[in-house]
Task: structure prediction
Amino acid sequence: MSSVSYAFLDNAPVIPVIAIQKLEHAVPLAEALVAGGITNLEVTLRTQHGLKAITLIRDQVKGANVGVGTVCNATEFDSAVDAGANFVVSPGQSDALFDRALLTNIPFLPGAVTATEVMASKEAGFNVLKFFPASTSGGADAIKAFAGPFADLQFVPTGGINLDNAASYLSLSNVRAVGGSGLTPADAIQNGQWEHITQIAREASQLGA
Ligand code: 3PG
Result:
């Protein structure tokens, strides 16, 4: 059983899922989110800049708790932790990822959307799971149903979650936080509209309050 603390998720209802298209965006984007009260930042490995962005944010953005997303294998897990990621999120799960996570003190959120995947995660020792893609995997109703057989597990749904529907997830007792890319619109980043992103973050950080 993983004894790692997931306290970083306390009082932090929303996690932006970030894809950095240009490395120079990483620091101002993270600063804009932190200014709006969003401190857990999931920087994905979907672009070539992911790892470098994690290091820049860790080193330069006070108040940010930077993690990594879209981690699909143990090599990526290690690279992200070396780069400075404080938590690791995967869209799915594998024995290799479970094993790697259990060797570290890094909070790991494996992805699970079926009862079988939830059971495998639990058996491996993980109690806080990413539920992705949420909207096409049964949405809030599916997570609510998991509260019966899996009362001791918590979920962080992502995929199709926005400011309008986040509350329906966050109202569930077994939802620890929600995630999404909507907090970091690509056009706003491209145009350097950092104040706009701070405003979105401010609104998001009030959810579930
Ligand atoms: C993720 O990896 O969590 C999702 O891609 C986020 O989904 P969204 O783009 O629908 O918010």
